[in-house]
Design a protein that fits this description.
Layout: H1 17-20, H2 33-38, E1 44-47, E2 51-55, E3 64-69, H3 84-104, E4 114-119, E5 129-133, H4 144-151, E6 155-157, H5 158-168, H6 175-181, E7 186-187, E8 194-195, H7 198-207
Antiparallel strand pairs: 1-2, 2-3, 3-5, 4-5, 4-6, 7-8
The structure holds adenosine monophosphate and zinc ion (ZN).
Organism: Rotaria magnacalcarata
Keywords: DNA damage, DNA repair, DNA-binding, Hydrolase, Metal-binding, Nucleus, Zinc, Zinc-finger
InterPro entries: HIT-like, HIT-like_sf, Znf-C2HE, Znf_C2H2_type
Length: 210
């Protein structure tokens, strides 16, 4: 069972079967929080007719945005070949918004280098594409699961998702394999060195930005 989530802190969220199956959670359930952002101008970084961009509330890097469709699509299990152009648009908007945010922040190097993708098993309902700078300097990046969710194959590259959708008409996720990836050892995404603890890995990451 998923625990409740307070408004100011992020507790470990186990993806519920509701989310994995593409069903909708109850309106006030923590996993429905992203839906509220679609209608809340105060948290929006960008919005157009098709999608909305917000800052991740618990950013795992200096710049961490979420791009969501305005249409109510629960997750990748709910997308089909009619959504290809929407996912392409979300990727284009994600790239353009990342560039603008990085330029405004005068970001350089890994702070201005981004990856775009989806978690294989999301915790939050409403489809969302992560836009994340590759510094991973953040107090909210705390656990091995956080790290591996952004640096292993658990992070599904947005371009690959679009290619798979075009080729097959659907996205299938091997949930057993994906869950195992979250327990991978801690490997630096830049130099492949291994670390025994998150504090050691985070200390090491500082070396890559100097
Ligand atoms: P995931 O469902 O694993 O792809 O990731 C969900 C993301 O949503 C995480 O990066 C959280 O930090 C983020 N998040 C959780 N609650 C909120 C919220 N209320 N507003 C914005 N981002 C959130
Ligand atoms: Zn390294």
């Amino acid at each position: 069972m998923a625990s409740s989530l307070s408004s100011t802190s992020e507790k470990r969220k186990t993806p519920s079967s509701d989310n994995v199956n593409g069903n909708q959670p109850k309106k006030n359930h923590w996993s429905a929080a992203l839906s509220a952002a679609i209608d809340d101008e105060s948290v929006q970084v960008y919005k157009d007719d098709l999608c909305t961009v917000i800052n991740d509330k618990f950013p795992k890097a200096c710049i961490h945005l979420l791009v969501m469709p305005n249409e109510n699509i629960a997750n990748l299990k709910s997308v089909n070949n009619t959504h290809v152009s929407l996912l392409k648009h979300m990727l284009k908007v994600g790239k353009e918004t990342a560039e603008k945010v990085a330029a405004k922040a005068n970001a350089r190097g890994s702070f201005a280098h981004f990856r775009y993708g989806y978690h294989a098993i999301p915790s939050m309902a409403l489809l969302h594409m992560h836009v994340i700078s590759q510094d991973f300097i953040s107090d909210s990046l705390k656990t091995k699961k956080h790290w591996n969710s952004f640096t292993s194959d658990y992070f599904l590259d947005a371009s690959q998702v679009i290619d798979d959708l075009q080729a097959n008409g659907f996205i299938r996720v091997d949930t057993v394999r994906m869950r195992k990836l979250l327990d991978n050892e801690l490997t630096c995404h830049r130099c492949s060195n291994n670390f025994t603890t998150m504090p050691k890995l985070k200390q090491h990451l500082l070396m890559h930005i100097s």
